[in-house]
Amino acid sequence: MLPFGGASSSDARTAPKQQTLYGWGWRDIDGGRELEGNAILGQRHVRFVRPVQVAARGNFVFVVDAGVQLLYRYDLSRDQLAVVLDLRAVTVGEVSDIYLYQDHSFLLVDPDAGRVLHFDRNGRLIRTFEDRLNLIRPVAVTYDEQMGRVLIADGSSDDILVFTSTGQLQGVIGSRGLTEGKFLNLTAITSGERGIYATARLGHRVQLMGRDGSHQKTFQPDTVVFPLAIAVDKSGNTFVSDYLDNSIKVFQNDLFLESIGSSGIGPGRFKRITDLWYDDGFLYAVDSLNGRIQVLRVEMVEPEALPESADELIDNELDDVLSDEFDDLAESRDADAMVLDEPQVLDAALSESEKTQAAQTELAAGKAEVAGEVSLESPVISDEVLPESSQVNGTPDRTVQE
Average pLDDT, stretch 188-204? Predict the structure, then answer.
C-alpha cells in the first residue's frame, strides 16, 4: 500500500478524507518476450523505447511505442509481446491517442494527417474518421458507449467533434474560450457514466460535459497545472496526470481527493505521464521517459465507523462490563433461591406426615372408646367407612376417613 500525499490547494473544498485510494503495489511493464523468437537463440525480451499511449482490456494491453513507431499487444498472463502494426506504414506523424473497443479493434489518432483511423484487432483498416473543414488537428479520441458515438478532440479549434460509428459528423461539444463549457488548448478526453470529461492546458483545466453538449461541472481549480491525460472509473472517480510534478491527481466527483506519485525512477515515480487508462479496477499509466507502463490496483474504500470520542468508547466498554456483571448476579440469585426453597419443601413434607400420623392415632382412640360402650350384642365396628345414616346407641356415628 503506497503512502499518498495530497497536493496543496488554495481552495478549501476537498473531498471527505474518510475515503481514500488504496493500491497493492505498482507493476511494471517495460516490454515482454517476443512472440516469434529466434529458433537458435530462443525468445528474447524486447523492451519499450518510448511508450506514449496505452489501452487495455482484460489480459491484453496495447502500447504505442513512438521510439520505434510500433503498436504492440502485450499478454499479461504470458508475458508475451506481439507487433500489431508498423505505424510508419499507416500514419503520417506520431500517434497522439488510442482507444480500444471491447472486441479489441482500436482507434488511432493521426494528428499530422488530421484523421482518426479505425483498425480491427489484427491491424486491418476498417474506416477513417475525417472532416476537411472541421477536423484540423485531432489530439484525442474516445468512444461514448451509451450513445454509440465516436468523440474526437480537435486541438486546432478547441472543440469536441461527435461522429457516428460509421464516420458521419453529427455535431460539436464546446468551443474555444475561458468560460465554463469552453476549452483552451485541449489535451485529453474520455467518456464516463456521467458524461464527457475533458482536460485543457489553459482556462478550466478539467470539465465534465453533458452528452447534449451542456456544461455540467468544473473540477476544483488550482489542483492540476498541466493535465496531459485523464481516466475515469465506473463510480466517477477521476484520475488526471499532471506534467508539472509527474503525479496523478485523484478526484471524487469534482473535488480533489489526493495525489499519487512524484518524479523519479522507482515504483510509483514517473518521468512524463503521457497517457492513462482504467480497466476493471486497474489504472495504467504511461511512464514515457522511463520506458514503461506502470499498473496500479485501485479502489475506493470506506472505513469502519468509529466512536465519536474516547469518552464514548469508555462508556460503551463500561456498559458491556456492567451488563455481564448483571447477568452473573441474576444467575447467582436464582441459584440461591433454589437453595433457600429446599428446607421449606422439607418442612412441608414433614408437616403432612405428622398430620397423617395424628389422624391415625385419633382413629385408634375413637375405636377403643366405642368398643367399651357398646354391648356384646352390638355389631362390631370395622375399619370400613359407615354410611351417613348409620347410628350407634341412638347417636349418629361420625364417618372416619383416612
Answer: 96
Beta-carbon contacts of residue 23 (< 8 Å; ≥ 6 apart):
1, 2, 260, 296, 297, 298
Contacts of 128 (CB under 8 A, 6+ apart): 115, 116, 117, 118, 167
Beta strands in 288-364 (DSSP E): 292-297, 299-301
pLDDT value, residue 365: 59
The position carrying cell 488548448 is 185
Q: What are phi and psi of 163, to 5 degrees?
A: -115, 150
Q: What is the DSSP letter of 39?
A: T
Domain identity same for 326 and 288: no
**DSSP 8-class letter at 288:** G
230 plus 94 within the same structural domain = yes
What residue numbers bound the domain in which 276 lies? 20-301
Residues 317, 295 share a domain:
no
Which cell numbers hold the place of 395? 347417636
Question: What's the Rg (C-alpha) of the chain?
Answer: 46
Residue 213 in any domain: the answer is: yes
Domain final residue, candidates 252, 270, 301: 301
Domain count, the chain: 2
Amino acid 298: pLDDT: 87
Distances (CA, A) of 335 to 30, 160, 339, 341, 348: 75, 83, 7, 10, 21
Same domain (yes/no): 197, 346: no
Distance in angstroms between the alpha carbons of the first and the last residue of the chain: 91
Q: Is 186 domain-assigned?
A: yes
Question: Alpha-carbon distance 200 to 194, whole Å?
Answer: 19
Task: Please name every residue paired with 241 in a beta bridge, in sequence order, or none if there are none.
Answer: 229, 248
Query: The domain that contains 85 carries what CATH number?
Result: 2.120.10.30
Going across the sheet that includes 138-144, the strands are 138-144, 149-154, 159-164, 169-173
Q: Which of 301, 323, 350 is the last residue before a domain boundary?
A: 301
Residues 65-92 pLDDT 10s: 999 999 999 999 999 999 999 999 999 9
